[in-house]
Amino acid sequence: MAASVRAKVLGILNFPESITSYYNVHLLKYITGNVRHVRRFGDSTNRVPEVEVPFSNGRNLTLSTGKFARFADGCAVAALGDTSVMVTTVSKTKPSPSSFIPLVVDYRQKAAAAGRIPTNFLRRELGPTEKEILTSRLIDRSLRPLFPVGYSYETQIMCNLLAVDGVNDPDVISINAASAALALSDIPWNGPVGAVRVGFSNNEIVINPTRRELSQSILNLVVSATRHNLVVMLEAAAENILQQDFLKAIRAGVKECQNVIQAIQQLQKHYGKAKREFEPLQVPSEAVLEAIRSLSEMRLREIFRDHTHDKLSRDLAVSAVRTDVVDKLKHSFDEDVDINSVTECFNRVSKETFRSLVFEDNIRCDGRSLEELRNISCQIDLYKPLHGSSLFQRGQTQVFCTVALDSPESAMKMDAVTMLTSGLKEKNFFLHYEFPPYATKEIGRVGPVGRRELGHGALAEKGLRPVVSRDFPFTIRLTSEVLESNGSSSMATVCGGSLALMDAGVPISSPAAGVAIGLISRYTGSDTKHMEDYKLLTDILGIEDYMGDMDFKLAGTKKGITALQADIKIPGLPLKVVMEAVQQATDAKSKIIDIMNETLSKTRKQRKENWPVSEQLEVPPQKRAKFLGLGGSNVKRLLVETGVQVVGYF
Predict the structure, then answer these.
(1) CA distances (Å), 563 to each of 386, 406, 459, 516, in order?
(2) Which NCBIfam families does this chain map to (predicted)?
């Protein structure tokens, strides 16, 4: 019997009987019909467990472990086509004093993976590129919500691009490899998650589209989900896609993610390590907890119900209560009280109080109803020397946007590996987002742009790119400086950026706006799978983002959606809540566009005096050498003497 089964399997795998002594095929019982099999390849000293995940488009994702980096806590290799990524994860065995999960994700693109040599002076990889930072954030947001509460052990996830074929983008592959590495390791983690990219072309869903297919798609959506069809992360750029098509794509993506999850579970069942025990942060005694609650809860309720507070006064009032509670506990208890754990407990009581008031009153801490927008005001053409400018104010969030127009030679050039994976050589429209410390009344070091600023700027750029004309003869640099921040500054950038572009005379198809939706949820006991009740909050404040369970940012025009980024802080969000959040955000952005249209509804037609001028002149072939001059001397002199740039001469 065993011999006949073995012969059939070897026939399926196309292995001749003559090499059976070198290969051992290990058969596993099927969990579902989607996971094909787990195989161990190699001789007795080098066996590589491997599992294949088929997708609806016929392309298979391969996950393997046990061959590379065996000193790491967990390691997995994922491959789609000829693109392969190795991900390792290591977590310290001693806790850190941090009150949040000290997780670091590093994704690096190696030029060698594409058969290239870096073109910098040292001919080696230097600091992370913008693409690497954005991909690291994408992976981080897919994994972080599933770490257990109180896990304060430093954890690092490193994604190493082994090979790239220029057809399959490695970012989604990296999410799946990281999920497998964590699942196989002994690190406590409530995964796995699965991730897919979803395209939409010719009214059809495309799962994990190739680079060519993606160039013809009006949607680039990345979905990360866990078991029971719970959404963990969403990231999208779209060409003004209709809402119903967008929701259809999300549902299809979540369904395909389940195949990846089942495959990782198969691999984990047979080759995963037992999860290590860990000690959460020190928790004060019950007597201390009750004292914190009795000393602070009623006072916190008064603060959160006082609608006259703004961001600063509310923060000062809560800080004063915190300081008073800590001082009283020092004098009331004879035993040593750990100040850090007491502060953490106070923050927990403050969060519980804030959230319970939303359910009790259906009114938010600033007096708004759940779906009400903050007061909005807009200004344009603030300074005459600027090509375009705007000031967008929403509540206590204030963003100043400027547009600078320059020649096509000023376009942003892409690095070699990004060029290969995205097919984009240069960008003639780009957005730079700045968040100085004074925006939140803080002092900080001003230096190179951070990961957060890059992420927010990239999201706002995705929200505006589809409405900007691709035939515009100039390079467009849109800058956004956050002058005041109390939530949703990236979405305020979309609104202010749209106004600044129209003020600069840049042709756009229609005005775009963005809004952030928050979530306050309740669960049945400690069960994180069954949501008992929830409240969606439109246009969230900074405190609602911090105290809540989600920051769901959506941008688009009145017609459709151009960008989405969902940061989910709970271990998965039901599809029903996602659909409602999209609908609520769509309604809100339409209202915001109506307000913006009162200031400026169309691209400025009357030219400004300082706008650049572009004119095309035809030089006869026989006179082109004379026109250019020796080594381009005439062109250089023309630039120095008149400021005119000559581009595109052939």
Answers:
(1) 27, 26, 7, 12
(2) polynuc_phos, PRK11824.1
Q: Which residues, in sequence order, are bridge partners of residue 531?
A: 523
In-domain check, residue 278: no
Instruction: Locate 585 and state its tokens.
Output: 């955000």
User: What are the tens digits of pLDDT across the range 410-454?
Assistant: 778 877 777 766 667 788 899 999 999 999 999 988 878 888 999
| Nearest Cα residue to 486 out of 441, 443, 452, 520 | 441
Asked if residue 59 is part of any domain, the answer here is: yes
Mapping DSSP onto H, E and C, the string for 250-307 reads HHHHHHHHHHHHHHHHHHHHHHCCCCCCCCCCCCCCHHHHHHHHHHHHHHHHHHHHCC
Structure tokens at 163: 């090979």
Cβ neighbours of 23 (radius 10 Å): 15
Q: Are 183 and 221 in the same domain?
A: yes
pTM summary value: 0.86
* CATH label of the domain that carries residue 106: 3.30.230.70
Q: How many domains are there within the chain?
A: 4
Which string of DSSP letters, residue by residue, matches 105-123? EEEE--GGGGT----STTS
Residue 429, token pair as written in the block: 């429209």
Q: Are 101 and 94 a contacting pair, CB within 8 Å?
A: no
State whether 455 and 326 are in the same domain. Answer: no
Alpha carbon distance 567, 581 (integer Å): 13
The DSSP call for residue 216 is: T
- Type of residue found at 259: N
> Left, alpha or beta for 154 (phi > 0: left; psi -120 to 50: alpha)?
beta
pLDDT at 34 over 90: no
Residue among 195, 486, 521 at smallest CA distance from 313: 486
Neighbours of 4 (CB within 10 A): 8
Per-residue exposure over 523-551, b if at least 16 CB sit within 10 Å of its own CB, e if not: eeeeebeebeebbbbbbbbbbbbebbbbb
Flag whether 151 is in a domain. yes
Look at residues 60, 45, 31, 264 and name the one whose alpha carbon lies nearest to residue 143. Answer: 264
pLDDT band at 515 (very low <50, low <70, confident <90, very high): very high
Q: Which two tokens stand for residue 524?
A: 């049945």
- Give the separation between CA 319 and CA 328, rounded to whole angstroms: 14
The Cα 634–Cα 650 span in angstroms is 15
| pLDDT at position 7 | 54
